[in-house]
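Hi F.,

I've been meaning to write this up properly since the lab meeting, where we talked about keeping a consistent format for the predictions we share between groups. The idea is simple: the sequence comes first, exactly as it goes in, then the structure tokens exactly as they come out, then a line or two of notes. No screenshots and no reformatting. I'm using this chain as the first example so we have something concrete to point to.
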Amino acid sequence: MEYEDEPIPGLPGRLPPGEHIIWQGTPDWLGVARGVFHARLVAIWFVVVAGFAFVAGGTGLTGALVTMAVAALGLAVLAILARAQAKSTIYTLTNKRVVLRFGVALPKCVNVPLALVGRADVKPAGNGIVDVSLTPLVRFPLAYLQMWPHVRPWKFGSPQPMLRSVPQAFLPLLSDALAKADPAKAAVAASDRGEVAAMVGAAA
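Output, unedited:
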């Protein structure tokens, strides 16, 4: 594993002088189940199918019970996938960047410098958690599928890193850190020195 030996959990290397961790956490697995694997919609679909099987499918109670048994198995699989995805993910906010370490089979570590974040959009996910998507000032170097599911849905042409199912208490910390960054200055510097690739971290 690329990040099997982490000097600091969730980070590919030790922090340089002048950088410190502000917040670190993992996604809420129930939020991942709802937002990524759409467990609620799957459950509703199975209930509808079971209803049709009971009323009009010709199989009556037996068909409905079989459908619900399959539903329970399917939802259990989604729950396992959601827990694995959440457990393998660590989000880190420092005074310089946001770091996303994720991946069950093939771990990745992605750095998003705060000074290169143009805006942060928040989507409530229920139960005190939110999804936070970051819009870079420059084109993000990784493709949508490379970042999934930690990417804003449907933004295939211009991927936006997303922190999934984080607590609302994270928002003021991120807002304060972004306010202290200088996006315009950093964007010019990145363009001049070709530092866009610095958004993608490599193992130290």
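Notes:
Helices lie at 29-35, 39-55, 60-87, 144-147, 170-179, 183-193.
The beta strands are 21-25, 90-94, 97-102, 108-113, 117-126, 129-136, 162-167.

If this format works for you, I'll send the rest the same way.

G.
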